[in-house]
C-alpha cells in the first residue's frame, strides 16, 4: 500500500490501486458505501450479498469488478464465493442481519444465525482464502454498540455475537500477523436494515433515536464507510475496535 504525501502536507492520500477488496455484505448499507469508497480509491472491488438481484444491481450501478450471491450460513457457500479469486488484499466481513429474540422464547436455530452470519462466516472466509489473503493486507470485521450495551429486548445473543467479533479480531491479529485485523463498531446508522427491523414504526423510532442523540442525528452509511477505509488503509492500526456512534457510549 502506498501512502503519498506532498512536501509539508501531513494529510495522506490513500491509494488502493492494484489491490483487491472483497466485501461480504457489500450490496447495501455500510458495506455498499465502503465498496463505493474503495472503488473510488482505485481498488478492484468484489461485493458479496445474500440476494442475487441486489448484488448484480450494486455491481452494475457502481461499476464494481465482480459480485457474488451467497448465504453465508450455508455450508460451503463462503468458499464457493471466493473460489475463483487469485488473491485478496483486503477482506471486509459486514454480513449480518438483526437476529433478535429472548433466550427463553426464541427458536434456538434462529438465535444461532447471529454467530453463523458473523463469527463462523469469518472463519470460513479466512480458511477458504488461506495464502491468497495477502500478508500486506487486512481483515475488517463488524460488531456494534450492543457489544458494550445489550438491551433487555431480545438482543442478548446478538450482543454476544458482536462481542465475539471483537475478541476474534484480537486473536486473529496474533494468528495472522502481519495481516492486520480490526473491527468497526458502529452505533445507529440509517440503512435499509432499519426498514426491515423496525417495519412501519421505523420513522417514529428513528425520530426518537435522533432526539436522544448527542449530535441530533444518526450515522449515515458514508460515515461508517470512511471509518472502514481508515481501518483498511492505515497500516499502523491493528487489533483495534473503532467505535463510531456519535458519542452514544457516553450516555
Kindly report the name of the CATH homologous superfamily.
Answer: NAD(P)-binding Rossmann-like Domain
Q: Would you report the number of β strands? A: 9
Count of alpha/pi helices: 8
What's the CATH topology label? Rossmann fold
Shape category: globular
User: What is the arithmetic mean of pLDDT?
Assistant: 91
Overview in brief:
The protein has 251 residues and is an alpha/beta fold. Helices cover 41% and strands 19% of the residues.
How would you describe what is shown here?
- With 251 residues, the chain is α/β, with parallel strands linked by helices.
- Helix 1 packs across helix 8 (221-233) and helix 4 (108-129) runs parallel beside helix 5 (156-176).
- The chain has eight helices and nine strands.
- The strands form two sheets. A seven-stranded parallel sheet has the order 5-4-3-6-7-8-9, with helices on both faces. Strands 1-2 form a two-stranded antiparallel sheet.
- Helix content is 41%, strand content 19%.
- It has helices at 29-40, 52-62, 77-82, 108-129, 156-176, 192-198, 202-212, 221-233, and strands at residues 2-4, 13-15, 20-24, 44-49, 66-69, 88-93, 133-142, 180-186, 241-244.
- It is globular and about 45 Å long.
- The chain has one domain (15-191, 220-243): 3-Layer(aba) Sandwich (Rossmann fold), CATH 3.40.50.720.
- The longest helix is centred in the middle third of the chain and has 22 residues, at 108-129.
- Residues 2-9 have low confidence and may be disordered.
- The N and C termini lie far apart (38 Å).
Amino acid at each position: 500500500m502506498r501512502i503519498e504525501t506532498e512536501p509539508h502536507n501531513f494529510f495522506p492520500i490513500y491509494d488502493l490501486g492494484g489491490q483487491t477488496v472483497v466485501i461480504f455484505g457489500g450490496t447495501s448499507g455500510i458495506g455498499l458505501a465502503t465498496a463505493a469508497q474503495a472503488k473510488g480509491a482505485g481498488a478492484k472491488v468484489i461485493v458479496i450479498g445474500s440476494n442475487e438481484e441486489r448484488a448484480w444491481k450494486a455491481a452494475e450501478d457502481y461499476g464494481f469488478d465482480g459480485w457474488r450471491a451467497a448465504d453465508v450460513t450455508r455450508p460451503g457457500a463462503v468458499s464457493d464465493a471466493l473460489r475463483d479469486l487469485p488473491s485478496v488484499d483486503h477482506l471486509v466481513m459486514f454480513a449480518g442481519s438483526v437476529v433478535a429474540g429472548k433466550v427463553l422464547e426464541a427458536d434456538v436455530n434462529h438465535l444461532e444465525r447471529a454467530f453463523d452470519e458473523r463469527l463462523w462466516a469469518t472463519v470460513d472466509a479466512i480458511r477458504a482464502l488461506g495464502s491468497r489473503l495477502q500478508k500486506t493486507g487486512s481483515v475488517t470485521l463488524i460488531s456494534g454498540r450492543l457489544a458494550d450495551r445489550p438491551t433487555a429486548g431480545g438482543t442478548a445473543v446478538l450482543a454476544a455475537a458482536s462481542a465475539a467479533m471483537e475478541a476474534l479480531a484480537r486473536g486473529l491479529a496474533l494468528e495472522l500477523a502481519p495481516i492486520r485485523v480490526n473491527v468497526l463498531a458502529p452505533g445507529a446508522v440509517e440503512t435499509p436494515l432499519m426498514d426491515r427491523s423496525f417495519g412501519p414504526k421505523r420513522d417514529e423510532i428513528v425520530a426518537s433515536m435522533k432526539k436522544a442523540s448527542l449530535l441530533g442525528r444518526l450515522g449515515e452509511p458514508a460515515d461508517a464507510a470512511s471509518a472502514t477505509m481508515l481501518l483498511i488503509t492505515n497500516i499502523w492500526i491493528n487489533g483495534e475496535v473503532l467505535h463510531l456512534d456519535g458519542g452514544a457510549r457516553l450516555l
